[in-house]
């Protein structure tokens, strides 16, 4: 028996407020914020039934949802760990050592890009420009940036995560 996908009543109220921000007939404009809400509500990722449900809520076609959800890296198309480490790998961060940071995380956590640790705690997600070039290398963890990274700073962040002491915002 398949589980019915539906927002909790309080979440649906929040979604309806988001939709109401846009003119009638322009509910598709609410897609990105509604996808954020859906991802948070349904386990941190967007599977096809969740995206289909979002399409239904917004009265748009499922393909319109898939196109957006698969384009933006902030949406997860498969289950992820509690802590998603998004390490910037564009020019300024690469020049300042982001590849060493990525290699260290890969080795320390024994995972490859896009993988999640066996304990479900960490997912490594290399990212394109996160817009903090002056503070390279950097990573995003939840809503927060960790800048001017060193191997030591990364180890400290990982340990704080293991201890459950990291605020994801």
UniProtKB/TrEMBL annotation:
GO terms for biological process: inorganic cation transmembrane transport. One of its GO terms (molecular function) is inorganic cation transmembrane transporter activity. [2Fe-2S] cluster binds at residues 88, 93, 129, 133. The keyword Metal-binding applies. Binds 1 [2Fe-2S] cluster. One of its GO terms (cellular component) is organelle envelope. Gene3D superfamilies: Glutaredoxin, NADH-quinone oxidoreductase subunit E. Belongs to the complex I 24 kDa subunit family. This is NADH-quinone oxidoreductase subunit E. It comes from Soonwooa buanensis. The lineage of its organism: Bacteria, Pseudomonadati, Bacteroidota, Flavobacteriia, Flavobacteriales.
């Amino acid at each position: 028996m398949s589980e019915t996908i539906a927002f909790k009543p309080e979440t649906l109220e929040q979604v309806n407020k988001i939709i109401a921000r846009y003119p009638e007939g322009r509910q598709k404009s609410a897609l990105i914020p509604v996808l954020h809400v859906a991802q948070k509500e349904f386990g941190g990722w967007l599977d096809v039934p969740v995206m289909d449900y979002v399409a239904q809520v917004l009265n748009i076609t499922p393909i319109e949802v898939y196109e957006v959800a698969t384009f933006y890296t902030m949406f997860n198309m498969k289950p992820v760990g509690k802590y998603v480490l998004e390490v910037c790998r564009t020019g300024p961060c690469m020049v300042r050592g982001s590849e060493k940071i990525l290699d260290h995380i890969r080795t320390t956590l024994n995972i490859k890009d896009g993988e999640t640790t066996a304990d479900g705690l960490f997912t490594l997600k290399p990212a394109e420009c996160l817009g903090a070039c002056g503070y390279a290398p950097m990573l995003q963890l939840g809503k927060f940036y960790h800048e001017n990274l060193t191997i030591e700073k990364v180890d400290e962040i990982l340990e704080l995560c293991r201890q459950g002491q990291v605020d994801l915002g």
